[in-house]
Design a protein that fits this description.
Length: 136
């Protein structure tokens, strides 16, 4: 699950511990990441949505009531502003989508980059140091 920024920050690094995430409950902040493919669910009223925001490492369920931006799509960058609930879901009161092919909201780009860096560091084998030796 994408962890929210700590304290009163608006955007930035994700919290590193469950304790900090719990402190964020009830406080307004922003989360950023990619809308997970296949996660968008629309309710019968047509304006209540649920979708998952991911930083490629962790996911968080977002609930939103309102009209989504025209450029909102699964697999694309998004920033949502709102609050964590006691159930661990994020209730957004505003959703922003990327506005062109080359832009990702800074919060989303940082979350994705950080998650990919952590994932790459986890998969590096100590015995794989250096370039492979070529034989001619």
């Amino acid at each position: 699950m994408v962890k929210p920024p700590c304290g009163d920050q608006a955007g930035g690094d994700a919290c590193e511990s469950q304790g900090k995430e719990a402190k964020a409950q009830g406080k307004a902040f922003r989360i950023g990441g990619m809308v997970k493919e296949g996660s968008l669910q629309r309710q019968a009223d047509g304006v209540t949505m649920a979708f998952v925001v991911t930083d490629t490492e962790k996911d968080i369920l977002v609930n939103y009531k309102g009209i989504l931006p025209d450029l909102f799509k699964e697999g694309k960058g998004v920033v949502a502003q709102g609050k964590m609930t006691d159930a661990g879901t994020f209730t957004a009161n505003e959703v922003l989508a990327k506005h062109d092919e080359n832009y990702m909201p800074p919060e989303a780009a940082k979350a994705v980059d950080d998650a990919q860096s952590r994932a790459a560091n986890k998969h590096v084998s100590p015995s794989s140091g250096g370039q492979p030796k070529a034989s001619y």
